[in-house]
Amino acid sequence: MFPGVSDSILTVDDVTNKIREAVCSAPGLQNISMRGELLGFKRHTSGHAYFTILGKESRISCVLFRSNASSVLTWPKDGDEVLVRGRVDIYGARGSYQIYATTLLPLGAGAKARAKEMLMKQLEQEGLFDPRHKRPIPRYPQKVAVITSPTGAALQDIIKISSVRYPAARLLIVPSLMQGVSAHEEIVQAFVRCAGLPDLDLVILARGGGSRDDLDPFDNEAVVRAVRSCPVPVVTGLGHQIDSTLADLAADISAPTPSGAAERVFPDKMELLGTLRSTERVMWRDVAKRFQTLETALANAKRRLQFSFITSRCNPAAEFIENSYQQMKNYLLFRLSDSDAKLKSLAASLQSASPLTILSKGYAICRDESGVILRDVALLAPGQDISLQMRDGAARVQVRDVLPASVEGSAD
Questions:
Q1: Exposure winner among 36, 65, 110, 278, fewest CB in 10 A?
Q2: Are 105 and 34 in contact (CB under 8 A)?
């Protein structure tokens, strides 16, 4: 061994691997976002892209593999400011480090404008901005999800307006970054969470005021598709007055500010109360008119029913009763006449058999003192008091002699 030289001698590959292990074990180097000027951009026939990012005093080589290159709609040009996301690794063949990029986004105004225009044309051809696909928002929402920063002023504005205009609505806050490199990913995940909320009426995507660059996440393709694929209507209020984002174009309704979005979503309770009072007055007027109409119809129906009842029931019944009365009267008169004739016949027979009739012919009825009729002279005795009943009265007499029939006959 050479004097002064360590017994542990590493190969070039060993050193490279140790450097790679050190780099890969550093969390801050495995998911980085880096901005800089693009230089030496080349697309290989394999589909991979190779380029360099310049800083003020340094540069880093980058590679974008074909699997990730398909997400780049507009290829930037040398000199454009770009944003690169990826991881740092060692390229041992050249003994250098480089960025293995997963995302390449333009940051310069011109590059961003070109990328936005191309994405807008693509999404427009797919029908994502078609007005026929716009959904009406519920008139009286009961559950509303708000995707926004939980610490931003936009959330406070929405809470204040909803509590004043329509306190019956329930707000569900879905927190998310509203600006920055990773904002679009959190916004997409927020829409995924909203899709799993039961009985949700609509979603508000809101962000407060800021620069135009702060609105870049809302031009991201994934965010635009998340807005359009949301199962409930989406209302945007992204705090800008001049330019509209692609998310605004995809939303069912877009407002220039979060406050404007809240005013579009939540009805004014004072207007509702006025409408209810007006509706109540109209309703009572209509009810009163309806009652009057029904009362008139009921009176007409009553008259028709009475006329129909009298015509079809009372008149035939009265005629039947009158006929029955005449028949009964005639029958009773017949029976009375027949009975009168029979009674006269019986009276004549009775009259002919009456003792008075006999008495009127000169006969008399003889009774003893107790009223018993004496039919034989053998029942009489001289000096006996008897009564004689004649046609027109009676006489008390005393028997002087009793003469049997043979004696009376001989006397004659």
A1: 278
A2: no
Amino acid in the structure at residue 200: L
C-alpha distances in angstroms, 164 versus 158, 263, 269, 390? 10, 10, 8, 128
What pLDDT band is residue 243 in, cutting at 50, 70 and 90?
low
Amino acid identity at 14: D
What H or E segment, with its residue span, contains residue 26? Answer: none
Give the rounded distance of the alpha carbon of 97 from its chain centre: 65
Q: Do 400 and 385 meet the contact criterion of CB atoms below 8 Å apart?
A: no
- Residue-by-residue DSSP string for 260-274: HHHHHHSPPHHHHHH
List the alpha helices (DSSP H) in 8-127: 12-24, 66-69, 109-126
Q: Is 36:53 a contact under the CB 8 Å cutoff?
A: yes
Map residue 52 onto helix, strand or coil: strand
Supply 181's token pair. Answer: 């490199």
| Confidence check: pLDDT of 375 > 70 | yes
Q: Report which of 103, 83, 119 is spatially closest to residue 213, judged by C-alpha positions.
A: 83
What 3-state class would DSSP assign to 135? coil
Percent of the chain exceeding pLDDT 90 equals: 34
Whether the Cβ atoms of residue 176 and residue 147 lie closer than 8 Å to each other: yes
The tens digit of pLDDT for each residue in 78-96 reads 778 888 889 999 888 888 8
CA distance 237 to 223: 14
Instruction: Name the pairing type of β-strands 385-390 and 365-367.
Output: antiparallel
Q: What rounded mean pLDDT belongs to the chain? A: 86
Strand partners, 49: 43, 64
Q: How far apart are CA 165 and CA 320, in angstroms?
A: 76
Considering only CA atoms, which of 173, 179, 136, 141 is closest in space to residue 158? 173
Q: Look up the pTM and report it.
A: 0.52
